[in-house]
Every structure is written in structure tokens, then in C-alpha cells.
Automatic annotation (TrEMBL):
The UniProt record lists the keyword Membrane: yes
Transmembrane is among the record's keywords: yes
Segments traversing the membrane: 25-45
Protein name (record): Uncharacterized protein
Keywords: Membrane, Transmembrane, Transmembrane helix
Amino acid sequence: MEHIPAAAWFAAAASAPQHQGSGYLLRVVLVVMILGCAFAGWFLLRGYKRKDD
């Protein structure tokens, strides 16, 4: 397994949209944002269950 320095990885990540188009990054950001919001909502609201004892 080859170790890639952080600077080289960052440079490769910054140049990736030129090869893949600008829509790819937007799709990744939107999916991560939606999943993050869903997880945060579940985490915050899980304590508000009403128990009918």
C-alpha cells in the first residue's frame, strides 16, 4: 500500500472536478448534507419518545 502525502492528495482532489465535471461534487455535497440532516434529526428527536405506561 502506497502512502500519499496530504499535499499530493489535496492537489489531486482539487483537480478532480476538471475530469469529472462540476456536478459530481455538488451531488456528493447534497447527499452528505441530506444524510447528515437525517442523522442529526434522528439523534436529537430519539429522546422525545412518549412511553404510554
